[in-house]
Design a protein that fits this description.
Length: 376
């Protein structure tokens, strides 16, 4: 029997563009988001009709800005998901919330959402301004405090490696929010071509932070968070015990099957990875390149790519990969196949109780370790 899948629903609307962001997003309007919800429900129905054996035990409403959806839109969407009969009883249901549009926690709880993820990023107001975020630091703190009235499972996103950000800024933001959350995601700034931040750096309005300073900030977060009983269960993610680990994201790191709805979203099912084109206009019209054609035009993923992905993503987690699982899944003898790689990376990894994992002190350089597995 097929295990339950994860369901990602992309809500691509934003009220303005953050200076570092290269995600697919479009300007918000109530009419556009109304039509969009209809199209998402339609795609969902086509997917479950096509794969008549799939159910879901995690749902993630991500964006964009899902907290811009109106009460009516959210209720319509959630009702369609429930009425499908494809949701497992034990369901992790997350929504991303931006602090400036965080006044609907009661509604979220009442419709069955049980995890909220709040985009705090930093509490330094000057840096928030540089990021072109719409919220201020007070709104960010109020959002996580208010979420506590309705939710137990609360994530906050923090960013590090930002121009002019200091360790003191990071410490302040972290210590201010930790008492109110059960999960923390830490993102290192990734500069992308074409973003406003990249242009500001190119024209020397902003100065990028060095890699060493960014790693120092990460180490500070690791140190403080672990002292306050947060466990790092993935390079960028900490939770107050297993109960609060994000089951949806764990599916990605374990290369489990998942469906993504909406333009720019990705799915993985029956060993096929397929991407929805980032084109909301055609998506709303259910026109070209919509499911099932997006699925049917993709070839099954090659075994070597799937194997590399399983190793690369699995090694993002401190528990690493289960060698026997990998052997069974890919019909290989892992230790034999990667004998010379394991010799090369011996100083950075541990092989214990049938698992291979990167030693905690080297997790931040995981990329340069896993690259050794490429092309084998
Ligand atoms: S709110 Fe999120 S998706 Fe929208 S522009 Fe900002 S970072 Fe990008």
């Amino acid at each position: 029997m097929r295990p339950p899948l994860g369901l990602y629903i992309h809500i691509p609307f934003c009220k303005s563009k953050c200076s570092y962001c290269d995600f697919y997003s479009v300007s918000y309007s109530e009419l556009a988001s109304d039509n969009y919800i209809k199209a998402v429900i339609s795609e969902f129905n086509r997917v479950i009709e096509y794969f008549d054996d799939i159910t879901f035990d995690t749902i993630y409403l991500g964006g964009g800005t899902p907290s811009l959806l109106t009460t009516n839109q959210l209720i319509r969407l959630v009702n369609a998901l429930i009425e499908s009969g494809r949701l497992e009883k034990k369901l992790e249901f997350s929504i991303e919330v931006n602090p400036e549009s965080s006044n609907n926690f009661r509604l979220y709880r009442d419709i069955g959402i049980n995890r909220v993820s709040i985009g705090v990023q930093t509490l330094n107001q000057n840096i928030l301004n540089n990021l072109n975020r719409l919220h201020n630091s007070k709104q960010a703190v109020s959002a996580i405090q208010n979420a506590n009235e309705f939710f137990e499972n609360i994530n906050a996103d923090l960013m590090i490696g930002l121009p002019s950000q200091t360790k003191a800024d990071v410490r302040h933001s972290l210590l201010r929010i930790l008492p109110y959350i059960t999960h923390l995601s830490v993102y290192m700034l990734r500069l992308s071509e074409g973003t406003k931040m990249m242009m500001d750096i190119d024209s020397e309005i902003l100065t990028p932070l060095s890699d060493d300073a960014t790693i120092d900030q990460y180490d500070l977060i690791f140190d403080k968070a672990t002292k306050l009983n947060f466990n790092r269960y993935e390079i960028s993610n900490f939770s107050k015990g297993v109960k609060y680990e994000c089951k949806h994201n764990i599916k990605y790191w374990n290369c489990s099957e998942s469906i993504g709805l909406g333009p720019g979203s990705h799915s993985y099912i029956n060993n096929v990875r397929y991407d929805n084109p980032s084109d909301i206009k055609n998506y709303i019209k259910n026109k070209a390149c919509s499911f099932p054609s997006t699925f049917e035009c993709c070839k099954p993923q090659s075994v070597s790519i799937s194997l590399f992905e399983a190793i690369m993503l699995g090694l993002r987690m401190p528990v690493g990969i289960n060698i026997e699982d990998i052997n069974n899944r890919f019909k290989i003898n892992f230790l034999e196949k990667y004998k010379s790689v394991l010799k090369t990376i011996d100083d950075y990894v541990t092989l214990k109780d049938g698992r291979l994992f990167i030693r905690p002190e080297y997790l931040t350089v995981q990329n340069s370790i896993v690259i050794e597995f490429l092309d084998y």
